[in-house]
Amino acid sequence: MNEKLESYLNKHLAGAESGLLAATELASTAENPAEKFFFLGLRDSIVREKNLLAEMIAEAGLDVSTLRRAGGAAAGHLGLWRLSMDGADPGELGRFEMIEMLALGIHGKRLLWTAMHSIALSSTLWRRHDFAKLIDDASQQGASIEIYRTEAAQLVFLSNPTHEQKAT
Question: Can you give the CATH number for the domain in which 69 is found?
Answer without folding.
Answer: 1.20.1260
